[in-house]
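Table 4 source record.
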Amino acid sequence: MMEPTHCNGSNERLALDLSCRGKGVFRYKKPLDEIRSEVKRFAVSQGFSLEVEDITLAVQEACKNIIQHARPVDGKMHVECRVSDGRILIEVSDNGRGFDVGVLEHDIASPMAIYGRGIKLMKGLMDEFGITSGREGTTVRMEKKRS
């Protein structure tokens, strides 16, 4: 289900692809746990420590959003992490149906809602956060500075 790829060089990089056909986060618990473990291992190997839980939770939340909402055309999502200038740069992308990013500013979950806090959570966990979305898919970009 998951195909991790590690590329070493002057710019360390981690790339992961996950097949995610069908809806339902619970059926992807094991692959999501594997993604979280790989991202954690990569972040620690790059000197991140205090920030690791924030980083892994944000990545997991972005992946869950793809599974629940995107419905990727080829059934895949891509997670890429790299480090530059003491910051971990993360992109989580899919080629599913996009959405109007402008709606996010006004679409705040009610205090009693079970779902709907993921984007706010990711923004709070990371130093930088952005989303681009269109007919060709969605990309979430996040950055976290090393302490």
